[in-house]
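Researcher: Following up on the earlier apo prediction. This time include the ligand. It's 2-acetamido-2-deoxy-beta-D-glucopyranose, with the SMILES given after the sequence.
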Amino acid sequence: MRTMKAPVLLVLVLTVWLNSGDCAPSSFSSSSSCSSPPSQWCSSLDSAVQCGVLKHCLESNFTRSRQTADPVAVALYYESLCPGCRMFLVNTLLPTWVLLHEIMTITLVPYGNAVEKPDGQKYTFECQHGEQECLGNMIETCLMNKTNAIQIIYCMESSYDVIKSAQSCLEIYNPDLKWDEVMSCVKGDEGNQLMHQNAMKTKALNPPHKYVPWITINGEHTEDLQDKAMTSLFTLVCSMYKGDKPAVCGGTQRVYKSYCHNE
Ligand SMILES: *[C@@H]1O[C@H](CO)[C@@H](O)[C@H](O)[C@H]1NC(C)=O
Ligand SMILES: *[C@@H]1O[C@H](CO)[C@@H](O)[C@H](O)[C@H]1NC(C)=O
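Model: Understood. Below is the ligand-bound prediction.
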């Protein structure tokens, strides 16, 4: 009995911790039949029911069907170990996306100031912060190719060690995807080609990037857009969205700075 207790407790603590992070009511994910990660709860009627979030999903599907305009496309050109990139991704991009995912899309291109050289049919890469950064860029690239990786990348970038945390982050957010499958992409031709595509996307930037994090909004980069994105992406996305604005855009307060009070 003793040996069983610790893991069970750990799972409970983890569940409570994950839920408290976004102020979700405790009924969320309380059902043991809910096996999918939060990003997929609304993907089908069955999983919505199993995960106890049917009402939420129907409402958010309703909001989506009301949507009249194109979402605001936010792209981030970055490097996995660049401190400014990590700060923007963790403190600004993800919190904004959590609130505004119905009116924005995110594209992540991990490459930045890396340099590629052709080597036969393949490429070799040199990264600004060394080989570990190349590895981090590659893991994130392969994850994005295999799953909806935004939360896994957030988890990695907010951890003390971006690379070492990768496997646990995957296990938390997408236990169905095997780490071995990700690593065979990382080490193989597939990852090499995907990273080459990141290099080409980065080289195609107009104007060319001068630093990272480098942000484009609807494919466009200006100093003004960059500044606004860095200081308040939330306000920028709300103001650029041309359709009916979601309620969270309403006030002047940035809602994710509010508190969860104990009653
Ligand atoms: C929400 O919409 C998607 C796409 O239109 C659909 O596949 C899904 O079943 C809907 N979910 C619910 C809970 O109605
Ligand atoms: C993953 O990469 C392969 C090429 O290796 C490509 O054909 C496929 O479209 C990519 N999938 C996604 C979701 O990016």
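Model: The beta strands are 72-78, 104-110, 115-119, 122-126, 214-217.
Researcher: Noted. I'll compare it with the apo version next.
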